[in-house]
Amino acid sequence: MGRIINPDNVGSLRNRVSKAVVLALNEYSEKSYPRGEARDMLAFVILSLEAISNTIDQSVLAWEKRGYWVKADRFRLEWLWAKQLAESLRKALLQDDWASAEKIVYQIRQKLIDVQVSPRHRMGKPWVGAWQKLR
């Protein structure tokens, strides 16, 4: 019998969510949206970064079991930005500080600069209703 591969592991989830964040940021920056849709997009980015941050410990668990402490710590440090920028963006968005939000969006774009989204993606608009979930 062959190996059983789980397609829903945390690495795949992190990749899908990263692509959705890039899609939301591309839509956010390409057009000037009214505040309502911009809030939805940024709230989606916040929730997505928090979801990415929650997958990190699950990813390093196997390495820690085998004693690869340095590898686990490097991976944690590599993704530490997700939680920090999500918290900063949440604070800026809830205070309607759009200038700070723009700076944070730029930082997130720099972190996800290598993530490519296909022009024929089937994600739709995953950010619709995210503002209500955030509050």
Key traits:
mainly alpha; 6 helices; 135 residues
Give the topology string: H per helix, E per strand: HHHHHH
The number of strands is 0
Please tally the helical runs, counting DSSP H or I stretches of 4 or more residues. Answer: 6
Count of discrete structural domains: 1
* Spatial extent as radius of gyration: 16 Å
3D shape = globular
Structural class, by secondary structure, is mainly alpha
> Which percent range fits the helix content?
over 70%
Question: What does the main sheet amount to?
Answer: none
Beta-strand residue fraction: under 5%
Mean pLDDT: 88
Q: Uncertain spans, ≥5 residues at pLDDT below 50?
A: none
N→C terminal distance = 48 Å
Overview of the molecule:
With 135 residues, the chain is an all-alpha fold. The chain has one domain (10-114, 124-134). The protein is 71% helix and 0% strand. The chain is globular.
Task: Explain the layout of strands and helices.
Blueprint: H1 10-30, H2 35-65, H3 69-78, H4 80-94, H5 98-111, H6 130-134
Helix pairs in contact: 1-2, 2-3, 2-4, 4-5
In a nutshell, what does this entry contain?
The chain is mainly alpha-helical and 135 residues long.
